[in-house]
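Holo prediction. Input below; ligand is adenosine-5'-diphosphate.
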Amino acid sequence: MMSMPIVSPAALRRTLQAFERIVGPDHVYADVEGRHGYTDAFSPFDDPAAQEPLAAVAPASAEEVQAIVRIAAEQGIALWPISRGKNFGYGGASPRIPGIVMLDLVRMNRIIEVDPDMGYAILEPGVGFDDLYHYLIDHRIPLWTSAPAHTWGSVVGNALERGVGYTPYGEHAAQVCGLEVVLPTGELVRTGMGAMPGSKAWPLFKYGFGPSWDGMFMQSNFGIVTKMGLWLMPEPEATLNLSMSLPRVEDLPAAIDALRPLKVSGVVQANPSFGNAIRTLATRNIRSSYWDGKGVMPQDALDAAAAKAGIGQWNFSVRLFGYEKVNEFNAGLVRDAFAKAVKVDFKESRWHRGEDLRHSGSPVPSLSVLRIVDWLGGPGGHLTFSPISPFRGDEAWKQYQTTRALYERHGFDYYGGFTAGERYLNHITMIVFNRDDAEMTARARTLFKALIATAAANGWGEYRTHIQWYDQVAQTYSFNKGALGRMNQAVKDALDPKGILAPGKMGIWPRRYRENG
Ligand code: ADP
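Structure of the complex:
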């Protein structure tokens, strides 16, 4: 455990006064209410306020970010950047440790440029998925966003955390092209072609000249991203959705193996997600409406609830985006592949340009998915455990069985799904607990630790994790006695000599914290 450098009240006062001179007194929040906004609303800890920051500051421009960073470095006060703070299931707006100042980028919400021909946007971090969606509609720009299940968060923040969406552009980190970053020294850098004055190719060519650095600022604490180039998908002529359900739990591996060649060859470009029955049931109602017992919901109760709701034990959609004729042809390939592999029900629906977008597969603004956290009646907390699996039925099945068994051994329903990448599956599972039940909340934490350890013992690593388990997950990436962690530390110390940016993010601690520890 690292211990924190102490911030003296006098140093804090001086720092906040200096911040007020930069952003104006209305944009420094140091009172109880202001600080409370930066807690994890779904926290797995009894006292989320224990994590509260000292204050928050909300700049309006990259220049203001630079000025703030320089003062923080001078005073030795750590900053924790967030874009919109909707990192739900992974810590929300909360920092890793208390005793720091939040750098809230929500006011930097300009959509700087959208190019309809080239299909990109240049965005500031405060732009939400909903903002971008409405901007494109209002300006009649035929480009689509790609968004995660709820659309409250920041487009930039989500891409930096490598979030996923459900269109062909659903691997959000892969759409990033060119960043503007404030380094922990206050220096402003543009990556790729953005480093050349006058270049028009910043959001077009990902690499520039020499080493390419966009990836270094994702899931890291090496810089504060103030602008991002992001590729957007041209609105397709049509979409064709094949919605499928598998009647039996054990049909999953065959369905995964049926999808793999379609993904690897590019016939299916979006990311279908195989969700278990609970994942669908929980979007509709709370558990006691289906089954009123105690402990884990048994499989026969799940079978009955699924049958009554008209859903399968696994439910997923393969949606094709593009030209209508190509979609129709590819839909034949998809139907054949699945029908050969497994007993499956198909429901087809089609959308054509100009029709209601809610039926298109474009992520229209929605928060309804957040309802699932009240599965046990609420007030619900949740913790997301998301290991990567190779795209093979047998591997995914082993991971599923191991994970579900651990959930159930600790008294929790397994809630999960496998979202298809190109060559991997992102197994996103969620521990849902009642926050007013301290015993259950403690059990959720115990389960989470066990999940990480068991996964690592099987060679399964998480793609992302809750802020309070950064260290534990980082330590599972331990090849050559933790060489990757040492390299991260060396980069951290070089770029952030004063150790002020997001200490502990992804298990990367600045030197002064390591020495204190
Ligand atoms: P969202 O609202 O999209 O879910 P958050 O604002 O909660 O995203 O950000 C999630 C995490 O990503 C933050 O805790 C922070 O570590 C990192 N992050 C977000 N925005 C930035 C940024 N502009 N620069 C650097 N890191 C960021």
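The mean pLDDT is 95. That is the main takeaway for now.
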